[in-house]
Amino acid sequence: MLSGLFQTTTIPVLEQVVNFSQARHNVLAGNIANVDTPGYKARDLSIEDFQQRLQTAIKARTSPSASRSPGMLEEEEAPLLAEVADNSRTILRHDKAKVGMEYQVTEMVKNQMQHNLALSVMNSQFRLLQAAISGRA
Question: Into how many domains does the chain fold?
Answer without folding.
Answer: 1
